[in-house]
Amino acid sequence: MIYKETGQYKSSYKSDHAIFPLLQDKIAFSTLMFIAFLIIPFVINSYWEKAILVPFLIFSLAAIGLNILTGYCGQVSLGTGGFMAVGAFSTYKIMTYFPDMNIMIIILISGLITAAVGIIFGLPSLRIKGFYLAVATLASQFFLVWLFNKVPWFYNYSDTGQITVSERTMFGIPVTGAEAPSYATYLFCLVLVVVLSFAAKNLIRSKMGRSWMAIRDMDIAAEIIGVPPLKTKLSAFAISSFYIGVAGALYFAVFLGAIEVTESFDIMTISFPVLFMIIIGGLGSMLGSFLGAAFVVTLPIGLKFLMVDMVGLSAVTAKHFEITIWGLLMIVFLIVEPHGLARLWSIAKEKLRRWPFPY
Amino acid sequence: MRIKQLLIGMTASVIAVSGYVEMAIADLKFPMLVYRTGAYAPNGIPNADGFVDYYKMINARDGGIGGEKILHPECETGYKTQVGVECYEKNKKDAMVFQPMSTGITYQLIPKATADGVTVYSTGYGRTSAANGKVFKWVFNAPVTYWDGASIAVRHILKNNFGNIKGKKIALVYHNSAYGKEPIRTLQTLSKKHGFKLMLLPVDHPGQEQKATWLKIRKARPDNVLMWGWGVMNQVAIKSAASIKFPMDKFIGIWWSGSENDVLPAGQGAHGYKSLTFNAPGTNYQVHADIKKFVHDKGEASGDGSHFGTVLYNRGLFQAMVQVEAATVAQKIHGTSKITSAMYRDGFENINLSAKRLEELGFKDFAPPFKITCENHGGSGLAAVQQWDAKTKKWNMITEYMYGDSDVVQKLIAEDSSKYAAEQKIAERCG
Predict the structure, then answer these.
(1) What average pLDDT does this structure show over A260-269?
(2) Contact B205 A262 (CB under 8 A)
(3) Cβ of A320 and B37 within 8 Å?
């Protein structure tokens, strides 16, 4: 009953091709946007900002980036941490060279720089596939992190190799640095995420997105029907890296503020978790990127809250439990629902269509 | 029905979460960022146990600080920056002081805590130039900094070479992170001053892989090796040094590379290994007797109680003692036992741990006396060299507490802190 489609006629191509063709989805999405833009900014505090919402938004962006490459174009990548580092360090370098440039522009340029780097590291994908490509992208992860740690030019010859953000404003309100109010950093990330997600969704529905999926499903067949592998694969690498680069820039400039490349962009802190996000969320699904990011960001915090603050376990016991539960959940997920949370959501939608009269 | 229940449950938990964060606490809160898991746990556990036992002892013996109980909620960071930020945000309200026990998290918290008005105390680690209180109002790193440490180590080498180390080769094996890189600039400056050759050997996190590092040392044969390591890196380095038969008395670690956990795995091979320290090992102090009486004998020891009296446990006691002393001083200054975060900082800036005061606190001859002022947040700058005796399994102090090369260090601190002040647009304080 909730998802009743009867009576919703589409009388134009435009309405037939809408991102949310159902009225119910439109209402749900508008409500979500209303809450996100007009309610949360007024009630947000620094804990929700720094621990949950901002990391969720940033990792959603990274997950969308990786999903474009892995979920839609079928090119497995383990280099997310390295590409995010490119975004972060580009932001830092541009910030220090052009102190008056607007932070939004800096972040978008950092995305473009990452896209260029992504194209270079995407070149081997023309020759190698699957696991072998995963290894090649793994190399990019280690190479990029090593490079930013080794060459002092990238961190402006600071003694410790740390890069620190300085304050930048949007419309007179600081969005980076320690003085930035919670609502400002949150809204800044939110605007970028919403705009870029719409762009990604539409790209996927365009000719480019369809050729990515053709390559993913069977690259030889795709080539025979006229999809150029060079252009398609490299465009996937470029666009994916753009998203990941923007995520890296936000991770450094808005979220953490000070970063050390070996620790913050480690394969275990970024590359694997982001890969888990798209696997848990759902490969080849926009919604999956968000659900996966929400799951990975909030699960440890939720478990900690439940075990330490509610049940009263000691912090270390809770941590051991958390690690165990995390591993178990991964296995359970892969067995019970290999298509991820997004698939669970579509099953729920099917059920809701008939609810409360299942047959 | 199920969905409804689930929704109600979720809403309730969301409300509970936000409610918890907002909750104000009446007692004095000393949040602890600890790591009892991960690659740095072997060092993190004894240190955290020291803190907890001291707080428990103060609560049991004195009924808290000036009648106010100490709350010490633990937050497990696993030495990870992002988790550290979460822990900080969760506990910062009405917090007295944060002790991150990680240089990375310290760098992360310096601007945040400064904006929020919360004290950060990084005991002998973190950002060295935070010793300049004129720039870093909310950050303290007494009693001694890494740059002091580097110059004290060089001073010790100088002494063993009759004051001349021209042309000698000194290698630095360091954790390839902000922590390990801290001493590099000081050592470079000192190498110019004394004419020794400096060899830099980074070891990547977590530090298990050091084959190439020690192969290089075997080839280049440096006269001395210094180490800035932490966690498993220390154990692996000392084992590797022993296996290439590097003379152990020429191998000097920073104060974070000199605990029992670090040398025990290498067995007899670690005999003679040296490290710096700013507190004494052992259990022959009044504070230990008190902890035994008020905490351990009641079966309330933190962890399994097996780290009692080890180097890092004792350091935890020392760190906790300084933090509690700051609260006592703040209560005296402001004439109230219910101090706020801002009052606590005033207390910290007026700490004067004279020999007499240390004796009163049960820390007689445990550490050199020091004093914190508005200008100097770095304390005395004194450290001594201790040496490991593998036969009796004991650390022995082999030198007096000594100063570093303050000409070099003070100049570097002024340089670095003024750079930071310019970047962050901070005006200098202290008239």
Answers:
(1) 87
(2) yes
(3) yes
Q: Confirm whether A354 is domain-assigned.
A: no
Q: What is d(CA B233, CA B179) in angstroms, rounded to the nearest whole number?
A: 13
B115 closest CB neighbour out of A179, A301, A316: A179
| Residue pairs spanning A and B at CB distance below 8 A | 104
Is B146-281+383-409 a domain of CATH 3.40.50.2300? yes
Distance CA B201, CA A295 (A): 40
Number of domains in chain A: 1
- Cβ-based burial of B164 (10 A; exposed 0-12, middle 13-18, buried ≥19): exposed
Series of mean pLDDT values for 10-residue runs along chain B (431 residues)? 54 49 64 90 91 93 90 89 90 91 89 91 90 92 91 93 90 91 92 93 89 92 94 92 92 92 91 92 91 91 86 93 93 91 92 92 91 90 93 91 89 89 85 71
**Cβ distance of B36 and A256 shorter than 8 Å:** no
Residue ranges with strand state E in B266-367:
274-277, 352-353
Enter the ipTM.
0.87
Interface test with B, best of A44, A47, A352 (most B CBs within 10 A): A47
- Residue in B with minimal Cα distance to A161: B178
| Residue A108: inside a domain | yes
Q: Which CATH superfamily is domain B27-145+282-379+411-424 in?
A: Response regulator (3.40.50.2300)
Q: What is the model's pTM? A: 0.89
In whole angstroms, what is the distance from residue A193 CA to residue A195 CA?
A: 6
